[in-house]
Every structure is written in C-alpha cells, then in structure tokens.
Design a protein that fits this description.
The chain is mainly alpha-helical and 138 residues long. The model has no long low-confidence stretch (mean pLDDT 87). The protein has one domain.
Length: 138
C-alpha cells in the first residue's frame, strides 16, 4: 500500500482541521491513560481481552495530564498549533480515528461526551503550576 493510500493520509486530506501530530498525540494520550494512569474499564462492553475502555471525559483528563507532562506551560500553544483548541476537538479526532478503525468505541459512547469537559485557558494557563526542579529532586 502506498503512503497516499494509508487511512491516516486519506483522513488528513478529508479533514484538514487537525495535523498528523494531533492524531498521534491523542493515541499517545490513550496509551498514557492505560499504561501510566491505569485508567479504563477492563470489562467494557464489546472490548477485546486486555483492552480497557475509557469514557470521553476520562480520555480528556488523561490527555490534559499527558500534555502538561510533555509540554508544560507551552501545552496550550502546542495543541493549538496542531488544531486542538477545545475538548470538542479531541472528540472530533477520536471519532475520526474510530472511523478509520484506529480506535474503538462502545455502544454507550457518544461524540458529545467530549464537549466542554474543561476549558483550555483554565487548565493549561490559569491553573498551571510551575515545578521547582531543585525541590522536585530533593
């Protein structure tokens, strides 16, 4: 299969709102939720053995934590550069990934579950706390 025929590239051609990095970041955020935060319901309806299902709100929170860990105070700027301005954008990305079978959903999941989970200005700017590296290492 040529690169231009890959579902990711077709998706990027069809929906130009988000950059490739946005899709990669959301998938990394899902892995972070499972592997680091141990979030997700292992008994979710329709899930494969070993998979843990997250709600839209849980995934948004995991992505928030992952963004702060990766980019610190610049998280909002980085996400904006990729086309992500709100948690609704995260929902659009997740549902685009579901459409190309790179993520799954349960029967109870809805796109609207991602709407208004938190305000980017509030969580990435106003509530941000700088960490003193000297104190963190002590």
């Amino acid at each position: 299969m040529s690169a231009s025929g890959h579902p990711f590239f077709e998706l990027l051609q069809r929906d130009k709102r988000y950059r490739l990095e946005a899709y990669q970041f959301v998938r990394e955020g899902l892995s972070f939720a499972h592997d680091v935060l141990a979030l997700g319901d292992p008994e979710a309806e329709g899930g494969d053995p070993g998979e843990r299902h997250l709600t839209g709100q849980e995934l948004c929170e995991a992505i928030r934590q992952y963004a702060v860990r990766q980019y610190g105070y610049m998280a909002k700027v980085v996400l904006r550069n990729w086309g992500i301005h709100t948690t609704s954008d995260l929902g659009n990305i997740v549902y685009n990934l579901i459409e190309i079978k790179m993520m799954k959903k349960s029967a109870t999941d809805r796109r609207e579950d991602f709407d208004g989970v938190y305000d980017f200005e509030e969580v990435f700017s106003r509530q941000f706390q700088f960490e003193n590296r000297d104190q963190a290492d002590a």
